[in-house]
Amino acid sequence: MKIYPIYHSGFMVELEHHILLFDYYMKDLPIIQSDKPLYVFVSHKHQDHYNPEVFEKTKDFKNRTFILANEIKQTPIHVIHMHHDETIHVDDMTISTLLSTDSGVAFIVEVEDKVIYHAGDLHLWLWEDDSEKEAKMMRGSFMAEMKKIKDRHFDLAFLVLDPRQGDELACEGLEIFNEWTDTSVIFPMHFSSDPARMEELLLKVKNSENIVNTERVKEYEF
Question: Which domains are delineated in the chain?
Answer without folding.
Answer: 2-221 (3.60.15.10)
